[in-house]
Amino acid sequence: MDIFQPDTTESIEDRLTSLEKRFLMHNHADGITQPVFVGKTNQGTANIVIPTTAGILGENVSNGDALYIKSDGKIYKCSSQTQAEVDGFVGIANRDGIAGETSDFVVYGTKTDYSGLTPGTVYYLSDTPGKLSTSAGTIEKKVAIAFSENALLIKNSF
Known about the structure:
Elements: H1 12-20, E1 25-27, E2 33-35, E3 39-41, E4 50-56, E5 66-69, E6 75-77, H2 83-88, E7 89-93, E8 102-106, E9 109-111, E10 122-125, E11 132-133, E12 142-146, E13 152-154
């Protein structure tokens, strides 16, 4: 099964079972390890399941911001300026959110609400918190690749 071009003869339950085996694990500073896949969203493309998760925001974020989990367990805008942020990268904000609220983000998979992307272009964390760039920041971390003018394939590791 291909997560992005699913077998249409496969039931949604079978696809979800397969995806559940692809949990990303996050290690907290206090030694606790937890899975970060907790849900799904469709984002307008029929029959595509996109892993998302949610967390309490430590600051205001905008749709499309790169995010990381800080040592306090909250979600913040991620940059490539420190190893802690690069290592804590968890995904891309799925909507605008304000500090203190629970907001969701795409852990891996497609995010299709962009415009003007160049297919095949790799995106990195930048030195500007929350922003992606086509060139590496201080610490190189590839996080996505454009596969159409409006869609990024988000990956936590390349």
